[in-house]
Amino acid sequence: MYLTPQHILLAGATGLTGEHLLDRLLNEPTVTRVLAPTRRPLAEHPHLENPVGTFTELLPGLSGQVDIAFCCLGSTIKQAGSQEAFRQIDHDLVVAYAKRARELGARHLLVISAIDADDKSKIFYNRVKGETERDLKAMNWPQLTIVRPSLLLGQRLEPRLSEQLAGPLSKLIPGKYRGIEVCDLARALWRLALEEQDGIRVVESDELRRLGK
User: Fold this and answer.
1) Could you tell me if 64 and 33 are in contact, meaning their C-beta atoms sit under 8 angstroms apart?
2) Per-residue DSSP letters for 32-56?
3) I want to staple 66 with a disulfide (CB 3.0 to 4.6 A). Which of 9, 38, 50, 160 is the partner?
4) Semialdehyde dehydrogenase NAD-binding domain spans which residues (predicted)?
5) Would you place residue 165 in the very low, low, confident or very high pLDDT band (cuts 50, 70, 90)?
6) pLDDT tens figures, 101-116
7) Is 203:188 a contact under the CB 8 Å cutoff?
8) How far apart are CA 188 and CA 169, in angstroms?
9) What pTM did the predictor assign?
């Protein structure tokens, strides 16, 4: 069964995936409102509501009807500055956002996690992503979609050296570890948002590539 969501909440609209997803949402005829809190102003659009400030300050004041919530929040340990700061962004903020989205009436949360997320992993990054997935699942969302993209391929405003080096090679890797174009990920997220399927769905990168074509 397919839905026609009208009111969207989007976190991470200034990031690589969030920018592509926002553009798609604002061009969808069924979407009448996109609520996208950001730290810097976005280009104006008649269907865009853009509170500006720090995310933690904006979160409690978000209001209005929400049908579906997308979470594109994410960082790296290098960008965050420390493991503790990384966990605050990729776990604490994501969970807090999910709780607020549920309070606003969202029935479906779509969140970007990471390939090999595992709350028992010995790798810190994968373990934090896995802990985030675990805590989101415990919230008993009517519909929760967790996507696990592999290396994202696209032009960032602030390029990541590791992605620039690994990007060309990742296109040669088969299966779920092959790199995914960010435009394909955004298309896949929207297609998944339109599907009504109660419960939890985890979508790996190879399926995301297929959905995004």
Assistant:
1) yes
2) -EEE--BSSPPPP-TTEE--BS-HH
3) 9
4) 7-106
5) very low
6) 999 999 999 999 999 9
7) yes
8) 23
9) 0.89
Q: Give the residue from 52, 95, 72 showing the smallest Cα distance to 12.
A: 72
Beta bridge mates, 144: 109, 200
Residue 2 lies in a domain: no
Residue 81 CA, chain-centre distance (Å), reads 21
At which residue do the structure tokens 């009208």 appear?
Answer: 6
Which runs of consecutive H residues, i.e. helices, occur in 13-93?
16-26, 55-58, 77-80, 83-87
Which residues have CB under 8 Å from 65's CB, separation 6+? 7, 33, 104, 105
CB 189 within 8 A of CB 162: no
Which pair of structure tokens corresponds to residue 48? 């865009």
**129 found inside a domain:** yes
**Distance between CA 203 and CA 58 in Å, rounded?**
30
DSSP character string of 106-152: --EEEEE--TT--TT-SSHHHHHHHHHHHHHHTT--SEEEEEE--SE
In angstroms, how far is CA 137 from the centroid of its own chain? 15
SS3 2: strand
Q: Which of 176, 152, 151, 198 is nearest to 21 (CA)?
A: 152
Domain with 132 in it: 7-212
* pLDDT range class, residue 2, cuts 50, 70, 90: low
Task: Tell me the pLDDT tens digit for each residue of 112-135.
Answer: 999 999 999 999 999 999 999 999
Phi and psi torsions of 14, nearest 5°: -100, 0
